[in-house]
Write a structure and sequence with these properties.
Strand content: 15-25%
Radius of gyration: 33 Å
Distance between the termini: 89 Å
Shape: elongated
Number of helices: 15
Largest sheet: 5 strands, mixed
Amino acid sequence: MRGLVILMFGILVIQLINLQVIKGEEYREQAEINALREIPVPANRGLIYDRNGTLLVQNTARFSATIIPGDLPDRGERTAYRMISNVIGMPISEIEAMVAEGIVNQGEFSPALIKSDLDREVALTLIELEPHVPGLSVQVEPSRNYLSGDLLSHILGYTGPISAEEYAVLADEGYLYQDYLGKSGVELSYEDVLRGKAGKKLVEVDAAGRELRVISERRPIDGTNLVLTIDIELQEAVNDILAEYSTDADTAAAAVIDVKTGELLSMVSLPTFDNNLFSGPISADDLAGLIESPGKPLVNHAISDRYPPGSTFKTIVGSAALQEDIATTGTTIVSRGYINVENEFDPNVIYVYRDWAPLGVLDFYDGIAMSSNVYFYYLAGGFADEGFRGLGADRVAEYARAFGLGSPTG
């Protein structure tokens, strides 16, 4: 009997040593994790103004429901999910999936996003529920409100929730799983400038996950404001004129540029869309309508399509002809108002390329001044009947690329 008591006492001592010495540090760290929480504090996104100081986009409040999985009661997860589901109208299975995804991406002691863009009334109801659901928290985050409706949608673009693929790439840059980021337009191009830097606070919580006190706090750094070269009043005028004269077209685009500075004063693409649709979850019907519209309103037709350059291309052809010794400034050509070109495979087929008028004898300067089509047809393609050798298609394309055609303007 005594031996049995000694044996049991020895086992107890060994277990105490195991708990206090061997695994003491592990359990101490776990206790600290259970008592402390790191809460992200989102930064305000930078505002955007036109050249005259008119506010174009501002921040409003967006409510999101999050839960810290590690604070859920061991046997009460299902009950907690049911209580949340009754308020936000989201199936329990979807809540479970969101929590599981949050654990995979951020661990069980970081807030897992359950649902974003909650109605204010729903958010207030959830706040009242917080004391009864350990780990539940309603986050208040900045959202975008585009003040000009659809007038600047292609220029400003919009923000949207970070995707799993984007988060995998951007997590090391301080992005949070519930963040919104620029998806198109200025919002995308100047994402690094506008986004700011999130802060965080370390808080002590009780066993139910309720905040007891703030241990430390790092305040967020708001994003930088932007002033565009766009003039909102000119933008509205150009939009109205373009809409008036393009009623029979699926698409139309126009831009106004200050030729002395290169500043873009206005850029309109029709049809357009209201980028406020993307400030919250966009409905399937709205998204389908934008995607399936024949005018492709999500496409900025001013910069995303390719168009014949018109007479502006003559300057490129002229420059190439001078560089390649195809012509000099004294090279003369007679414009009779047209030029006939035989089909290289069937000489019985004649193509007629017209000038805007019979312009007579022209040198290089006259060709530019009179914007003669025939003169630059000669320089580009030559005219075998008169023994005139032109640039040819390959060299024309080479110089077009050298001048930046087909490339982003920056």
